[in-house]
């Protein structure tokens, strides 16, 4: 399973399980939030590691830049839009 598929499955599971959702939201308070997030994910059976999340974000950002004339100032991507941890946490807060 690809990293984005795992993140999507984790999001779906968290929407259905309030305890998992709260555990994931609590990772924001940790000294190293991404590590804590991945630890919670693995505890619940989602094989997710920090470098997987970081790499997926970097790959998505690179693809976006390539598709928008090389990115740079003209790139429509917002700050942290390639940060899947922040995006998932933000979605769970809604």
Gist?
By secondary structure, the protein is mostly helical. It is 66% helix and 0% strand. The protein is globular and about 35 Å long.
Question: What do you see in this structure?
Answer:
It is a single chain. With 94 residues, this protein is mainly α. Helix 2 (18-26) runs antiparallel to helix 3. The two termini are 26 Å apart. The model is unreliable at 77-82 (pLDDT under 50). It has helices at 3-16, 18-26, 33-43, 50-67, 84-93. The protein is built from 5 helices and no strands.
What is the strand and helix layout of this fold?
Layout: H1 3-16, H2 18-26, H3 33-43, H4 50-67, H5 84-93
Helix pairs in contact: 1-2, 1-5, 2-3
The Cα radius of gyration reads 14 Å
**Percent of residues in β-strands:** under 5%
Order of helical and strand elements: HHHHH
Shape: globular
Oligomer: single chain
Biggest pleated sheet: none
List keywords for this structure.
globular, 5 helices
């Amino acid at each position: 399973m690809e990293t984005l598929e795992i993140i999507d499955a984790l999001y779906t599971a968290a929407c259905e399980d309030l305890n998992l959702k709260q555990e994931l939201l609590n990772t924001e308070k940790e000294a190293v939030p991404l590590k804590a997030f991945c630890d919670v994910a693995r505890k619940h059976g989602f094989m997710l590691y920090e470098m997987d999340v970081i790499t997926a974000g970097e790959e998505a950002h690179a693809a976006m830049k390539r598709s928008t004339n090389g990115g740079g100032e003209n790139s429509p991507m917002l700050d942290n839009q390639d940060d899947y941890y922040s995006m998932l946490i933000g979605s769970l807060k809604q």
